[in-house]
Amino acid sequence: MNIKKALLIACCLFLVIGLKAQDKSSVYTDQYRPQFHFSPQAHWMNDPNGMVYYNHTYHLFFQYYPNATVWGPMHWGHAESTDLIHWKQLPTALFPDSLGYIFSGSAVIDSNNTSGFGKNGKIPLVAIFTHHDPKGEKEGKDNFQNESLAYSLDNGTTWTKYKGNPVLKNPGIRDFRDPKVMWYAKEKKWVMTLATKDHITFYSAPDLKTWKKESEFGLTQGAHGGVWECPDLFPLKLNGKTYWVLIVNLNPGGPNGGSATQYFVGNFDGEKFTAMDTQTRWLDYGPDEYAGITWNNTGTRRIFLGWMSNWEYANQVPTEKWRNAMTIPRELSLKESKKGIVLASAPIPELKNIVAKTIQLKSISVNKVVDLSTKINGFNSQYTLKLNMVQLKDYTIRLSNKKGEELLIGYDQQKEQYFIDRTKSGKTDFQKDFSGRFTAPRLATAKASNLTLVVDKASVEVFADGGLTVMTCIFFPDSPYNNLTISSAGNLNLYNVQISALKSIWNK
Ligand code: FRU
């Protein structure tokens, strides 16, 4: 090869690599694009689906419509990560077919090949999802949602739908969907938790194909302001004792309007779930966490992920090329509280993988207002803020921009409530209920308190009192909130204040 030719090839290579890099960064730099939360490169996304940890990889499938930025015929999109923070979007996994759209569901690793889908020693990854037949729905039938299977022998890259679909036929319940399946080792069987309109129905199967009804739960328990959707069932330990947690998403009827995630704590004996009391518990009180469930096969860790939106306005939010992101993955644990045993959530510790810089402020005394804006200079509205206080008092944290648009987060001591106010947060008029002030009860009993905020361009996740009270909220300001103040009427003493700048996961 002569020098000229070699130079030409080198130039072309540089150009191709350069263009590729530019492609990637320009996809993820549009206004409102989260920099460390998963969002699809383009088009519509709702619920997380098929979350499973396999071969050192976390899989995240999701409700996806690859032809528009509004909800449409559902597919399963696919992304993967080795640390739950850096995501890579992969080709679409499941497409609609003659049985209908591919609605929400779960995925399991069938290590014993109970399904018989495994071949030549290859372990099948099996997706259990709802086939939603839009024709049947239009015709006014009541059995247009049925449960079906697909399997993959190459780590979720390519999928084959089972010829015998559907494997669980609808007995005549219009809302019959979102199967979450787990292996119940004690009885060597699969257990399916299914949302059936206004309650949960449990099924079991030895082989993922022949499902038998075990029991029902919830007709007279929990919140019933809307349809029950996207359930989850898993054990968690507290003080050496095992409890079972049953997550049930609800739309509408959430504590702050629209969609939200409730859950029950109790016992599951392989057939039946029994709640330990009749209280309604909310996993996240904010307006923007929905359809949240947990990963399968993560050992003793329970990692939760929600869709960071609300059906009230998910189709109208002012993003252009894509719509809706996921929450930050959260580690769940059980804790004692004012409401008895409750779920606490914490942002996963893997967030440290993208910390660019941490500012430590030993103690701050807030008497009126403390301006921390210079501390977040250059953080591009991508950071975590951690506060500790020996004695909880009224306070307001204000995220704002030069135009005066603001998001207020705080605590109201008299009402014993946390709040988020996005009334003046920027664009709010795309839907009548977007603007508003949202509240959540304090569940901790101690005088001392702490708070973690996870801020990413157009979203904040609030974890108060070690994650006993959680609120997620999205917002759409004209320009990023580069200002940060904390105010309090009476001497609020903060210690161990920590602000960490977080790097974008999209330009490694
Ligand atoms: C929840 C949900 C599910 C359904 C899916 C359809 O957000 O309504 O019940 O399977 O979305 O996209």
Your description of this structure?
- By secondary structure, the chain is mainly beta.
- The protein has two domains: 31-347, Glycosyl hydrolase domain, family 43 (Tachylectin-2, Chain A, 5 Propeller), CATH 2.115.10.20; 354-502, Jelly Rolls (Sandwich).
- It has two helices and 32 strands.
- It has helices spanning 3-27, 134-138; strands at residues 43-54, 57-65, 75-81, 88-94, 101-109, 125-132, 145-152, 160-161, 176-184, 189-196, 199-205, 212-217, 227-238, 241-251, 260-268, 273-275, 281-284, 290-294, 303-307, 322-323, 330-337, 340-347, 355-371, 382-389, 395-400, 406-412, 417-421, 437-441, 449-456, 459-464, 469-474, 483-502.
- The strands form six sheets. Strands 23, 24, 25, 26, 27, 28, 29, 30, 31 and 32 form a ten-stranded antiparallel β-sheet that branches.
- The structure holds beta-D-fructofuranose.
- Beta-D-fructofuranose (FRU) is lined by residues 46-47, 63, 74, 103-104, 130, 177-178, 229-230, 291.
CATH fold assignment of the largest domain: Tachylectin-2, Chain A
Task: Kindly report how far apart the N and C termini lie.
Answer: 34 Å
For the CA atoms, what is the radius of gyration?
23 Å
Q: Estimate the helix proportion, in percent.
A: under 10%
Residue stretches low in confidence (pLDDT < 50, at least 5 long) are: 15-22
- Tally of discrete structural domains: 2
